[in-house]
Amino acid sequence: MQFQIVRDAIVSVLGASAGALPTERQFRVIGYQRQAEDAVTALVASVQIFYNTAAFPKSGGTFIGDSVKHNAEFRIEMTVAKRSKGDLSGLENATTEGDAATALATFFEAAQVVDIYMDQLWSDVWNILMDAENETYGLPTGALSSRWIESFQKDQPSPKGEIVILTANARLSCSVDEEVEGITGVPGSNYDVTLTDINGDTEQKTGVTGELGGS
Amino acid sequence: MNLRKRAEADLESSLEGDWGLPVILTDPDGVEQTKSKNNPDEDLKGQILYDHRVIDSETGMERTVNTPVVTLRISSLDRVPKDGEKWGMQFPLVPDPDAPKTTFILIGRPPEGGASIGFIRLYPQLPEQD
In whole angstroms, what is the distance from residue B47 CA to residue B69 CA? Predict the structure, then answer.
């Protein structure tokens, strides 16, 4: 269906745009194969796209036609994992008590670090997906319409030892036109019957059930 | 000597004896402590466990995390860490007293005091460079 093409297009746009961000803001897009990936960056943040819900409004025009309007909603899941950070080299190389105290004051708790990083990640994802250049996510004009990020929700940070993990999700909706292609089923069985009409004349009919044009 | 004083005195062997590993503390004012207050000729030592159990807030199940727990004898400290303070800590990353020391940060999770006996349990974290 068309939504699968749109989903892959969103992954491609996010993945390509993420690679163009400054190194400290780059994130990994699940399903997008980068040419070269920094292992540290890959651990910090990831984004995954799921086809989430759909609505197919019925109308007179589409009821018997082969084109169906499909209001699709995608769930964008963001995950960030960070540890506490600060001026570690300043602390290790401090020569005076004042230098050590200054370096210690620069440290932030992992929960705070991960929250700040998530805010930046969300900002980047939103800006990429809502960029006017990405109105159709690289697909031909008319392939989708009304794309919109409707909501964003951040979850509770989850400490895993010294690493704190924070997840969040956003909902992206758009409309696509689906073509009803039908499916290729099992071939019907052959028939060969003799029919008699009202005048008593007989006619031989042969063919395959489910196919048109039998004789 | 009453039982509590006896138990506190026993910390010298149980925490700082043969099982003890060297620890260097840097308090929020940048003052470093390398020697024991009780025995100024001796390195400050403590018991270091390299993993501990926590309750997973998502599942309610107990699990093990590979982050160290350092238990120190309070009477050996020049200054005792308090909740909300940022401290530096250096100790070996493996249970070998001669191994190189790695820098940790005491931040976030508050210390747990065993004030009735006289030890304090610290949860240092391995930080990353900003």
Answer: 8
